[in-house]
Fold these 4 entries.
Entry 1:
Amino acid sequence: MVRAGLTVERLAVAGAELADEAGYEGITVSALARRFGVKDASLYSHVRNLRELRQRVTLYAAGEFVDSIAAAVAGRAGKDALVAFADAYRAYALAHPGRYAATQHQVDPELLAGSTVLARTVDTTYGMLRAYGLGEPDLTDAVRLLRSTFHGYITLEAEGGFGHPREVQRSWERGVEALHVLLEHWPRNEEGDEEHE
């Protein structure tokens, strides 16, 4: 075990590995201290408490997650970009369940302010949707729909929730295709009109 050279970055990486092994709730100060062969108190030189430790893991995993999606989407547009985005999203979530679970947790504003993760996530997601010509608030609504659809499908798949013999991969592909059709025919927002009535 490594006993020296602890940094916030090394703790975040080790915490992400631990999350995949033991689940997000398995990230504890004691578990990481054991991994590095040090006393719990040694970790408190780098993080204030368990909450910050887990949030550091969330930031690390979120950065890794969005980078994998951005690489998949690069140079693509429209349906090709949506398919690449969706497939990269699913691949990461299934390969790294603990890290993916970490990305579902919010991070305190002061920690988030020192990171580029949020900006990269917005740029990648909104960039993928650019070809559909959506403006606000439709763009935000579309992002929420995609995220909740992907998350629900992946969660059910990971837990063995699909009992029908239909191949799960084919249903995924058809679902993403249906999302593409929906995005192309997105019902235009009328909230602005309602405000003037």
Entry 2:
Amino acid sequence: MRPLPALIFASRWLQVPLYLGLILAQAVYVFHFWVELVHLIEAVFGNTEALHKLVSSIGYKSDIAVTSLNETIIMLVVLALIDVVMISNLLIMVIVGGYETFVSRLRLEDHPDQPEWLSHVNASVLKVKLATAIIGISSIHLLKTFINAANYEQHVLMWQTIIHVVFLLSALAIALTDKLMSNGAEKH
């Protein structure tokens, strides 16, 4: 290759520090998950300090003092844990899919742990998968808000719902555009 095209092609390696940074961000999420899980387990066994940390972290408010776990608090904490897992899954999709698509092949064809979706990943598939994952994360946030609706202003509930609907419409538009482009490519 000539020098300029070789430099342009080699510039894809500048993304590696970004993916390494995302791996560190995932480590932070793993730590956060375990801290919240430990607080939940401690609260189950009556630790009031852990209970207060949980109540504070989920934004739960009550007219009466919270002295023990209730179903709403447990549900909100579990949804927060699911949210962390879904964001972690999103990070894996971006890290693995992005590296495979834009930097270099991972050469996992014969590896027993190769993710099924990785065999047919490209930029379009990655966009649709990311949009779907964002909708899932948004759904969890919206569910947490609705469960704890008494602690939110009506305009917050309305805007979160509107934003979620916009995410849905955006994902549909991305999927439709991808379908139209792939059908157009097949005709040529």
Entry 3:
Amino acid sequence: MNQANPYQWVEEYEAKLADLKQKSENLTENVAAASATVTSKDGAVTVTVGPNGGLQNLQLGHRAVELGGPRLTALILETARKAQKQAAEHVLELFKPLGEGTEAYQMVSDSIPDDEDDEDTTDPYDEVDDEPEPAPAPPVSRPAAAAPQPAPVRGRRPADDDDDDDDNPW
């Protein structure tokens, strides 16, 4: 940049501003539409999340009913985590032209889990206890005759003669 020519400096500055404005508009449009959809390996669960990681859609396949509650829960959570990671990576890619090299970009990048954490080293079904929880015991009902009776109220014995009432006012 030639600092001796102020007109050239202003033109370059205006060009940078126009480029920044265009990148910002592109980011705004594309982030609003950014989402990720992931289907589990067995096809039982499909999860769609938005750019902020919020759940937008959940579809359960025919196999889902065969899994049982605990396994289905684990599979939904695992699939949602994968979709959230994909959405975050997509948003980061959209943000790259505008923010690469900035602290904001680094902060967003650091918040995305590493691939090492996302490896399928364990089956989410293995983490779930297959033993069903025992049903709660039914409440014990007592027959009406066995219900506890309130203790009798004991009062003051009646005085033998009325003269004693003057000495004891209560």
Entry 4:
Amino acid sequence: MGQTDLSPPIGRDGGWADAEPPCGNAAHAELPVRPYDLLTLAVGRAIAATWSLLGLRNAAGMLRHYLAGTGTPRRVDAEALLALPVVREAVDAQLARWRAEALERGCGRAPAAYPADSGWRDVFIGRRASRDWWLALRCVEFRLTGTVRVDGSGGLAVDYRFAVHKAYNFDRGGSELGVPFTPFARLHETGLARQFAVTGEAFGHA
């Protein structure tokens, strides 16, 4: 029967201990509402409705949640995210690292189980990967935690949890395709909308 390795988790080097906090915009409802903020709010609602008509379900849902102004966390389908090739590639790279480190650590030893933790890492989701997820999240952080088991013959089995996190906001001064983010950031700053955390999890075996 194998033993559990109690040394620090494998695969952690290079990962962050904590998920990224929201950007440094003004606090919620800190600024006064101006007429053009109401116009931006109407434009945002029209954009969300258009995305919904185009079948961009995740993008529309995220923007609507922002404009609703509750600030409550929103869960996403982490399995759908994990199925995107760009995300799957990033996750598989971490799993490969876990396997290599487990074999190195367990060389010449009896069967053992090694705790593993990637720390928080980010992956960019471009338009070509998925227009829907690009508009919904653009970039998302993920963290893998789990166990790598090595048997007596060097065989490996990995059980893992895939957690995702995103601070949904609009960075002042940022832009995408020529569309400035500052007017949408003001919706949070004036209390017409509110930033929120995006979370989700999925489980796998490899």
